[in-house]
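Q: Protein A?
A:
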Amino acid sequence: MTGKPENVVLLADDGTPVGLAPKATVHTTDTPLHLAFSCHVFDERGRVLVTRRALGKATWPGVWSNSFCGHPAPDEPFEQAIARRAERELGLRVRDVRPALPDFRYRAVDASGIVENEICPVFTAIAEGDPEPADDEVAEWAWVEPEALRSAVGATPFAYSPWLGWQLEAWQGEYRPA
């Protein structure tokens, strides 16, 4: 780590970059629209990695979600940001990063009142090994069959991040790497 604060890219409603803000200050009850990404990581057997958010997370602590999410640095390509975040959050190397839902966007309000407000393209990737996640990011993880995840989210949506449910609803065709 360089010690520099992590910045996120602020966006106009049409997705045009309009500025930067420190990540630590962006997620509030009045979160501005900003750029993010989600990634669904699959293993060689076709199972998808789900993670349970750490209990110390400011938003949606303890809920299950997609493999990981993050924010690209200014001018950082998504593929590079995804590789960086996979290593930082999951201790995992990924390959074959591909867009799955390039136009995904959402706004969600946590029970605490904190808002997620993101243009958040969704990607798939293939894992190289098993994760060794950072404790401050992930409480638990599991490899699951994609259709089993769809069924579980449908049956118990409250146990999952809202964006995971919305991403699965938007997914066209078979839920697998793009």
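Q: Protein B?
A:
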Amino acid sequence: MTAPTTRVAFVGTGNIAGPYAQSLATHPELELVGVFDVMQDKAKEFAAAHSVDSYTDLDALSAARPDIVVNLTSAPYHYSTTKALLGHGLTVFSEKPLAMTATEAAELVDLAHTAGVRLSCAPSLWLGAASLETARRVRAGEIGDVRLVTAEVNQGRIETWHPNPDTFYQVGPVFDAGVYPLTYLTAVLGPIVEVTATSVSMLPERTTLSGETLQLSTPDGWVVVARFGNGAVLRLTCTFFVDSATIPRAVEFHGVDGSLRLDDWLRADAGIHRAEYARKFTELVPGESTADIDWCLGLADLAASIQEDRRHLVTAEHAAHVVEVLEAVKASAEAGTRIAVTSTFVSPLEASQPSNTPAFADN
């Protein structure tokens, strides 16, 4: 029997809404039914282009009772928007990060539990084939105990392609893009317990596509050292200065018996390389880089988990832990000291958990 279609609504019709809609269209089990944006003209234009309803406000969206609402607002508005949606008793999948502070993120987790609905959060690209295959090999002990991990996040100069880069530079490269490998690596290796970070403004004045001058309010270059609870250490570089065409988006796991490299943490079809100790990397899985990025991997899993009455893989508890890590990164750079991270979560790659807790109940 074919599973029922999951009805999805978007809140926010900005730059990322188009890629989400394109990805959603490749999932026949998902149906986009409507959108809301505070900029009503923008929402109506998006709705018309995708032949869906345009809601006038969150009350109207709630009355339509979509199965899942995707929060695609800008990062500073994730917390308030998700809080309002949970207050309407709706299941939510939020773009990253879940919130801008650990306190806000923990509050959202508690609200979902209280409301008896599910809460999930991007990034979910680590559910792609290449990331999961690399994780499988690491967790199977193929390179022995992992002691060192390195990750590169160089997203280039946002103003050269995005018409409204302000919010990117407001949150900075760690919150905007460093969250991808941080989420992936904590899924693979477990919670982070300590962070040390430094930041610098590399190019503090930018010129937008419209010719306006933009002064950065957040440093555009960061180096982070994080220690996992299992003892492994991460060195993460994040910039809005260097482009990924120059320094690829790679993650490397270095173990006692060798190393594994995921060539691109963004792509499901990335290559995977392996090296024995003191040897060069050789190709294990060739990279393709031809398929479109599927932004709806986590959304599709959330929908399937509801149908199958199981725990979804991209959990709010995991996302909240990553927010605390992000907050610790900022605090460490400002204070010039190590910052402890105290939150924890059950890794989605561990044995499956029962789904009979309130946070994972159906709508």
